[in-house]
Amino acid sequence: MVVWMLDLDRRQFLYSLASLGIGTQLGCISAVQNFPAREFELVAMAGQALTDTGKPSIAAWTFGGNVPGSQLRVLQGERVRVQVTNQLAVPTTVHWHGVRLPNAMDGVPHLTQLPIEPGQRFIYEFDAIDAGTYWYHSHFQSSEQIDRGLYGTLIVQERKPPAVHRDVTWVLDDWRITANGQVSESFGNAHDMSHAGRIGNVVTVNGSVNDQFPIRAGEKLRLRLVNAANARIFALRFQGHRPMIIALDGQPVPPHEPEGGRIVLAPGMRCDVVIDAVGAPGERYPVQELFSPREQYVLMDLAYDAAPRITDRMAPLAPLAANPVKEPDLKSAKTHEIIFGGGMMGNLHQALLDGKQTDMRSLLRRGKAWAINGHVYDSHHHMEPMLSLALGQSYVFRMRNDTAWHHPIHLHGHTFRVVRRNGFTTPHQEWRDTVLMSPREEIEIAFVADNPGNWMFHCHILEHHAGGMMSVVRVG
To answer: What are phi and psi of 390, to 5 degrees?
Structure first.
């Protein structure tokens, strides 16, 4: 593994080399095959968003001037090399969400690297060992930087992809827009932080507000869904159609219809579906968003064009090939109990902050309201690990959501199986990197701690993350 850094000071160089020494010990992070590197450039810069609403566009922070940033596409097994240049007036980093990579490349400021300062460049390099749908985003003050538009998608294509007519990505997001047509500056306010997070008032797909998605009768569509919102949870129903889920968080699952006909995506989560266009030319079918009973709406319509129906036969839908993820040994796995607490209407009265027991009122004055196992974390600086895991050992995390709010829990650097919910075995035993916990729910996840380093473990409702629901898991 080689780290390339340009225009960095000596402190950043030594910091990255130290992180690299941890991250390269893992054999499974080496390339699946020795393919040449695919090189990309990303520029963090001021740009525009919502350019197609008929109203003036809004100022955004972007990768390359647009929201979302450029889609990076590689083949499974290829090495990925991305030069990131920061032209913003503030520091940033890039986290590769869901990608199993060396710790030094994970993009968490002050944990795996120093921030990329204005005018600096940093090169991320890793092997795309797992096929699937992933995304990249800022991990520096992410509750603001992601909400301003600093994200994009990374697609790792299978060597033998399913037979479809089109492969399409929808990046779902929402924006809090003020009366003067710009992004609200109300970042970090106490109400958002202690409740459901920052919910926007304008919902976009691929940075646009569209009332229709063109589709042709008879086509087979692979649709990659990515939730890049700070806090909004989507539950999509495709009226008149039967989408088949083939992957969750990039990892293959047996093809199946979504439970209750709704595809639920919390922040950070992804879902690949295959849709057969069974409608007739000229017909329209709504794609409904149904997560909140009090706020249901039509995201857009599937709008069939007037072209004749496609009649060529595609190969039957078959399961995707499994990625090279190590199977946890549940018989020998060590179990850790993890309790997520806090928030309004919760049971958390006090928690440890900076080593001192602190009551909820004092926590709120510090901009905090959430805890993991009774600990509130203040920043990425000098974070002591919540858990230390032995390299190569299987683990079960028995996680309980002791709050009144939903939490999508994300573990960096690893993929885990969701094995039980509320004491019942899950039907698909799906691999994930982000799992949604409902209020008062208990979930068990299992994985092999096979990637050495210090890894973030946090809620991906970004205001909850900033409000203390984050920690570090050390492997090795």
So the answer is: -80, 135
* Closest alpha carbon to 437 in 471, 473, 405, 398: 405
Same domain, 95 and 217: no
Structure tokens at 397: 């995390």
pLDDT attached to residue 65: 94
Three-state DSSP class for residue 23: helix
> So what's the pLDDT on residue 380?
65
Nearest to 153, CA basis, from 230, 276, 66: 66
Domain enclosing residue 197, as ranges: 166-304
**C-beta of residue 342 within 8 angstroms of C-beta of residue 255:** no
Residues 247 and 264 both lie in one domain: yes
Q: How many C-beta atoms surround the C-beta of residue 319 within 10 A? A: 12
* DSSP β-ladder status, 350-353 and 375-376: parallel
Whose tokens are 């607490």? That residue is: 341
10 Å Cβ neighbour count for 435? 24
pLDDT for residue 7: 41
Where the chain has pLDDT below 50, the residues are: 1-11, 13-32
- Count of domains for the chain: 3
Cα R_g (the chain), whole angstroms: 22
Task: Tell me how far CA of residue 468 lies from CA of 2, 246, 342, 349, 374, in angstroms.
Answer: 34, 34, 9, 14, 10
Question: Vertex 112, ends 27 and 406: CA angle to 5°?
Answer: 95
d(CA 130, CA 97): 12
Among residues 408, 380, 370, the alpha carbon closest in space to that of 139 is found at 380
Phi, psi for residue 263 in degrees, rounded to 5: -95, 110
Task: Check: CB of residue 226 under 8 Å from CB of residue 288.
Answer: no
Give the full edge-to-edge strand order of the sheet including 95-97.
72-75, 151-157, 132-137, 95-97
**Looking at residue 293, what is its pLDDT?**
86
Of the CA atoms within 13 Å of residue 131, those in its CB half-sphere come to 17
Cα–Cα distance, 457 to 189 (Å, whole number): 23
Same domain flag for 206 and 105: no
CA 252 to chain centre: 16
Structure confidence at residue 381 (pLDDT): 65
- pLDDT per residue as tens digits for the range 85-107: 999 999 999 999 999 999 999 99
Q: What's residue 469's pLDDT?
A: 96
Say if residue 137 is in the same domain as residue 178: no
Same domain, 231 and 293: yes
pLDDT at res. 313: 85
Size (the chain), residues:
476
Q: Report the first-to-last Cα separation within the chain, whole angstroms.
A: 19
Residue 113: strand, helix, or coil: strand
Nearest 5°: the CA angle 462, 465, 469 is: 150
